[in-house]
Amino acid sequence: MPPYSSQISLTDGRRNSLKSDDQVEYVPVELSYIEVVPGRKVAYRNHVGSKGPTILYIPGFLSSMELKKIIDVEKFAREHGYSNVRFDPESCGFSGGSRETIEFEHWIEDALCIIDRVCDPKEPILIVSSSVGSWISTIVAQKRPDRIHSMLFIGPAFNIIWKAFIYHYKIMSDEEKKRVDDGEYLVVNLKYGGKNYLRKDFSEKTKQFEIDTASPININCPVRIIHAVPDRDVSFETSLQIASNIATTDVDVILRKEGDHRLNTDNDTTQQLYEIHRLITQYPIKN
């Protein structure tokens, strides 16, 4: 267990007691919206701290910024004076858009918009991301390398959408396959709650954004990767492959003996906050 919990603060590697969450009422940052392109807005919350880096969270597949583990990162940032930005990609949470028409490319554009127009341009960005969000964060980090301080991947799920579609397609009835091939969608239950519109066109288009994890990945900032060994959705071995081929020499992989793909228990969050703290203290910003 790393020397961090939601009840304590880490400063220079020492424990300093803080008021617990039940003693300090959490008030979320005001909800704001930004127009990515005409007619398409995304929701975000921007806490302006007294120092950098800005901690930006890019959520996973169809995930909202209101997940507890994402809010816990904001709480950490606020307690320690760092800026924090979290947002809902198109068709998720408070953001507009329909899952009948969403495109993977839109989620990349959303993240770039937040980096370019919401995050303080004077502060480097520490990107925290989970699942498919780590795939997206890798794409945007390669497009904005000068903005990125470091990255934390939580159960990274690169190139997973087309594979998931093929899995579902194989178990469809002939009638369902024909409907999907003709451009219709099927509503499927997501493993961790909620529903998804299974669309062939959406899934197939993601292939153009796939990252070859067996070849060099052009990311040169420090990277930390946390993955659960029992993850049944994405094998932890994919994280080892990413670590082996990412350009930076400063990459650590932390394997959790317990847990699932979401890594959202209190112990998981403790580990994630510790890695954020470690990245910031190892690579301090001159504010």
TrEMBL record:
Q: Which GO terms describe its molecular function?
A: hydrolase activity, hydrolyzing O-glycosyl compounds; palmitoyl-(protein) hydrolase activity
Where does the record place the Serine aminopeptidase S33 domain?
Answer: 78-164
Q: Does the keyword Hydrolase apply?
A: yes
- InterPro entries from the xrefs? AB_hydrolase_fold, ABHD10_acyl-thioesterase, Hydrolase_4
Q: Does the keyword Hydrolase apply?
A: yes
Output a single Gene Ontology CC term carried by this record.
mitochondrion
Q: Record's superkingdom?
A: Eukaryota
**Listed SUPFAM superfamilies:** alpha/beta-Hydrolases
What keywords are assigned to this protein?
Hydrolase
Entry's Pfam families? Hydrolase_4
Record's protein name? Mycophenolic acid acylglucuronide esterase, mitochondriallike [Latimeria chalumnae]
